[in-house]
Design a protein that fits this description.
Shape: elongated
Number of domains: 1
Helix content: under 10%
Structural class: mainly beta
Strand content: 25-35%
Number of strands: 16
Radius of gyration: 26 Å
Order of helices and strands: EEEEEEEEEEEEEEEE
Distance between the termini: 24 Å
Number of helices: 0
Largest sheet: 6 strands, antiparallel
């Protein structure tokens, strides 16, 4: 798995918490800065917790892959590798600013032969018998090791990802509204789809696919 969008979360703040009250007839003496309490009158003090902001991280698949046999008709092919069908967003910033995940991809090319720039690459929440046109969103859940606030996602699916030979445009494929998506969130059941025309030439096509995490929806 690869890590983008920031460093791994580190504990940046020390936590100091002082609370309590002392009653009784005894006096507190002999400690620098100590309070003196009398019976029936509690001592008051301030408890301070200094909490530093963590990072906004994205953990992604290491690669995507598709395999099929051409038939002479158009096809919709999904990446069936389970490890490719999820990614994790960890928002430890404590800001509640929200976030969005983007994808960009270069042309799927086999030498000088390329797949169409539009209509080829897309994503949704379908990984099986359904198609690239399914409107199902991926699922979301707190990771097993973390509490979280699940994201309120405004993206509609399927989401088309336009490819380009140079400087491909980023496409937002998932987002979290402000005050949501806080903590570690697993996005799973992610369908990565290729739509192939019936005229597609046989061969191995490659693309550089980048995922990124950006603060704010």
């Amino acid at each position: 798995m690869s890590m983008r969008g920031g460093r791994r979360v580190r504990l940046l703040g020390a936590c100091v918490l002082l609370t309590g009250g002392i009653g009784g007839s005894a006096l507190l003496t002999g400690t620098a800065g100590a309070a003196t309490c009398v019976a029936g009158a509690a001592c008051s003090m301030t408890g301070t917790a200094a909490l530093g902001a963590g990072a906004l991280n994205l953990t992604t698949p290491t690669a995507l892959g598709w395999t099929t046999t051409l038939t002479g008709a158009s096809q919709q092919v999904v990446d069936t590798t389970t490890a490719d069908q999820s990614y994790t967003v960890n928002d430890a910033t404590g800001s509640g600013a929200g976030w969005h995940v983007t994808v960009d991809a270069t042309n799927f090319a086999n030498g000088a032969v390329t797949l169409p720039l539009t209509g080829t690459f897309s994503t949704n929440g379908s990984t099986g018998a359904a198609t690239a046109t399914a409107t199902t969103p991926p699922t979301q859940a707190c990771t097993t090791t973390s509490d979280c606030t699940l994201p309120t996602n405004a993206i509609t699916f399927p989401e088309a990802i336009t490819t380009a030979a140079a400087t491909p445009p980023p496409t937002t494929i998932y987002d979290a509204a402000a005050a949501t998506g806080i903590g570690s969130v697993l996005i799973s059941g992610v369908g990565w789809w290729l739509t192939l025309p019936g005229t597609t030439a046989a061969g191995t096509y490659t693309s550089t696919v980048d995922m990124d995490i950006v603060s704010a929806p």
